[in-house]
């Protein structure tokens, strides 16, 4: 039997889609169905279920992903802060006219670098440790190492929970700067 030229071929019957794809298909069908109106032969008994299912799945997936993004962003900011503050503290110490002046400059550099990344609650003097390879510290040819350590609390965790269980990520960096070999001796 021959088909007339104006007819279009029929699409093959679709097999049922298992799992989550079925829910997505139903959600899309529901959204499109609202725009186009009810389909012939559809009684509308399942109208609105797809939206509820979509919101449930979105919350289950979206909330943990957003928390992970917040946490990783805060840890990355701490990484930038400690690396920059260790480098600048060592450089400030090495270029100071005396060891006492260098210590105060290093603490100030750490405070500025931590503050730039939003860690204003951290005490820069407690976060910084400076060690020297020789005594006196600014002896020509010696090295000065600055070590900065910051504890990053997990976001959105109340203080009373943090008091019971330590929920913080330690981030630290170390930078070694050399004292100029041809510089004059400094106290």
Itemize the secondary structure elements and their pairings.
Layout: H1 20-36, H2 49-94, H3 99-116, H4 124-127, E1 128-132, E2 143-153, H5 159-164, E3 168-178
Antiparallel strand pairs: 1-2, 2-3
Our measurement of the CA-to-CA distance between the termini, rounded to an integer number of angstroms, reads 107 Å
Instruction: State the strand order across the main sheet.
Output: 1-2-3
The major sheet is characterized as: 3 strands, antiparallel
How many distinct beta strands?
A: 3
Output the structural class. Answer: alpha+beta
Write down the secondary-structure element order: HHHHEEHE
Q: Which descriptor suits the 3D outline?
A: elongated
In what range is the share of β-strand residues? 5-15%
Number of discrete helical segments: 5
The chain-level mean pLDDT equals 84
Report the radius of gyration as a whole number of Å.
Answer: 32 Å
As residue ranges, the low-confidence spans are none
Helix content: 40-55%
